[in-house]
Amino acid sequence: MKIDGTHYRSLWWNAERDVLEIIDQRWLPHDFRVIPVATMQDFADAIYEMRVRGAPLIGATAAYGMALAMREDPSDANMDAAWTFLEKTRPTAINLRWALDRCRAALRPLPQGERATAAHALAAEIADEDVEINRRIGAHGLEIIREIAAKKPAGEPVRLLTHCNAGWLATVDWGTATSPMYQAHEAGIPLHVWVDETRPRNQGALTAWELGSHGVPHTYITDNAGGHLMQHGLVDMVITGTDRTTRQGDVCNKIGTYLKALAARDNGVPFYVALPSPTIDWTVGDGVAEIPIEERNAREVTHIQGVTDEGGIGHVRVTPEGTEGGNPAFDVTPHRLVTGLITERGVCDASEEGLSGLFPEHAQAAE
Ligand SMILES: CSC[C@@H](O)[C@@H](O)C(=O)COP(=O)(O)O
């Protein structure tokens, strides 16, 4: 997507410098910094410290990490070591393991001399596929927005609410939850997006930055405002991303998503989840019982980052000194609260039947 008129992906291979480059998201929306990811430690740090973030982008980054590992030492032992080293960086988003598994399965049968080139090509393929998957999610989601728009008086905006950043920054391009928004905006459908701030990391500020760059009208709101807005008829549709969706359609996403789904159900607001198929974990049924929830550093809760009056980026503590913080980073929304899953192959019910109907090949393989 575009920043000041220039098209960017969230990561790209710089052939001249022979290195992967990423947008370092820790500084957004205040500062746009591009950094190289040149060593295996850089890759692990980039994922753990959320220089890159969002389930699909974490997966694509890990694939490039595997490519670097194969360049350094294409042995089976190093392939397994790289898998383990990268996989432990973040536990919840399944795209990380999905990408590493896909790389290992493709590279293992190859002679060692071919692995570096093949791994690099595969990482680029995974990145390109992500772009196309998200473009298609947008096309299917656009139709839902179009239907809602058709029932409103002409010119009245469709009011969407989103949580976290499931935007192009969280993927390689387009975003998942934002792709329908961008495509609806391009199609001339008037929109207004309520953007949850998404404490503690304030990914909503990334979403606001993205939407602003594309001219999509939006308002940044506190995480606690959504229920109130829904009660007053100010939200037509909720659309979020997902970090892992189980085969029965339970959705694990950024902490606070579950509360939005509860409020949506209580107020009869449709709650959709944009779901690229690599984010489905076919091995898991009950998301609440089985998905590991990342517990992040308490400092992310007790402190907050922003721009100081002097213009620098700094942190301030919001709690009394010594107060303990708790920081579960994700929660699970049970499938019964999800109106539909918007995938690259179309929209389905959040159920085993719905998902296996769209992806029969995966469902059979997981049996
Ligand atoms: C298309 S991104 C979907 C999810 O990955 C997104 O909603 C989310 O929860 C991201 O969490 P983050 O902790 O910022 O990596």
UniProtKB/TrEMBL annotation:
Residues holding substrate: 53-55, 90, 203, 253-254
Encoding gene (name): mtnA
Keyword Coiled coil (UniProt): no
Listed pathway(s): Amino-acid biosynthesis; L-methionine biosynthesis via salvage pathway; L-methionine from S-methyl-5-thio-alpha-D-ribose 1-phosphate: step 1/6
Range of residues in the leader sequence: none
Record-given protein name: Methylthioribose-1-phosphate isomerase
Keywords: Amino-acid biosynthesis, Isomerase, Methionine biosynthesis
Family membership: Belongs to the EIF-2B alpha/beta/delta subunits family. MtnA subfamily.
Catalytic activity: 5-(methylsulfanyl)-alpha-D-ribose 1-phosphate = 5-(methylsulfanyl)-D-ribulose 1-phosphate; 5-deoxy-alpha-D-ribose 1-phosphate = 5-deoxy-D-ribulose 1-phosphate
GO molecular function: S-methyl-5-thioribose-1-phosphate isomerase activity
Cited HAMAP family: Salvage_MtnA
Enzyme Commission code(s) on record: 5.3.1.23
GO biological process, one term: L-methionine salvage from methylthioadenosine
Job description of the protein: Catalyzes the interconversion of methylthioribose-1-phosphate (MTR-1-P) into methylthioribulose-1-phosphate (MTRu-1-P). Also catalyzes the interconversion of 5-deoxyribose 1-phosphate and 5-deoxyribulose 1-phosphate. Part of a bifunctional DHAP-shunt salvage pathway for SAM by-products.
InterPro entries reported for this sequence: IF-2B-related, IF-M1Pi, IF_2B-like_C, Initiation_fac_2B_a/b/d, M1Pi_N, NagB/RpiA_transferase-like
Active site feature: 243
Domain of life: Bacteria
Record has Plastid as a keyword: no
EC top class named in words: isomerase
Annotated positions for site Transition state stabilizer: 164
